[in-house]
Amino acid sequence: MTWQIQRHGTVDSTMRLAEPLPVGSVVVADHQTAGIGRHGHQWDSRPNEGLYVSLVLKPHPVLTLALGLAAQKALQQVTTLRCEIRWPNDLMLGTKKLGGILVELHQDRAVAGIGINIGQRAFPSDLKPIATSLALETGLDFRRDDILEALLQHIPEQTSLTTEEVISSWEQASTWARGKQVIVDEIRGTTAGLDPRGFLLVRTETGETQTIYAGGVRAL
Ligand code: BTN
Question: What's the predicted TM-score (pTM) here?
Fold first, then answer.
């Protein structure tokens, strides 16, 4: 796959810049003034500390899961750390979030935003209990471009897998897939894999299996 890469200094959000661009476009910025997270949250995007990138891709039924796999592989390649992928697409180190993925569908294209905390040595007090960075975890400085390059290498490989292949790789790659005690909204139970569409299954205490379509999954 040939990528068309646009590099920017300060932008509002790479999601907005990527929106009108064709498949294969990549928009990367040093700083976002209005970084968008999932569920209407802001994505903390201070200058030069994180990787802030949006990619325009062909839609795939389980694109968010495939991108989680690509990000896990890219990070492992560059840093040797194996981050966890929490359904549907949080990148975690221990109990803290290292990165996140946001997919927006626009008819025949998908815009996928990936944010990875790299150089932050501190977070604002509201994020401190829930966020981490590669610098905080390792004491090392990683280059944003090395992580971007590894991502651009792994994304075509993971997004060309079939839905079944992505689901089965994801189930193997995530310790959140099975046997994890979780709470999602009001539902408490143990994760029981993904269904054939990529939704998370949770077995409750009453022995019922609930399908989780959206929502924040937390460890109990
Ligand atoms: C999440 O909430 O976990 C998803 C975060 C996605 C953040 C990235 S940073 C690059 C791209 N531009 C944005 O405004 N958001 C995504």
Answer: 0.96
Right CATH number for 4-173 from 3.40.50.2300, 3.30.930.10, 3.30.70.1290, 3.40.50.150? 3.30.930.10
**For residue 207, how far is its CA from the centre of ligand 1 (angstroms)?**
36
Element (H, E) at 8: strand 4-11
4-173 and 178-219 have identical folds: no
Domain boundaries, the chain: 4-173, 178-219
Model confidence at 1: pLDDT above 90: no
> 35 CB contacts (<8 Å, ≥6 apart)?
13, 42, 43, 44, 45, 52, 115
- 30-83 tens-digit pLDDT: 999 999 999 889 999 999 999 999 999 999 999 999 999 999 999 999 999 999
Measured between alpha carbons, how far is 127 from 158 in angstroms, rounded to an integer? Answer: 30
CATH architecture group of domain 178-219? Roll (2.30)
Q: How far apart, in whole angstroms, are the C-alpha atoms of residue 119 and residue 76?
A: 16
Pocket test for ligand 1, best of 52, 86, 90 (most atoms within 8 A of CB): 52
Q: Which amino acid is at 122?
A: A
- Give the pLDDT score at 40: 85
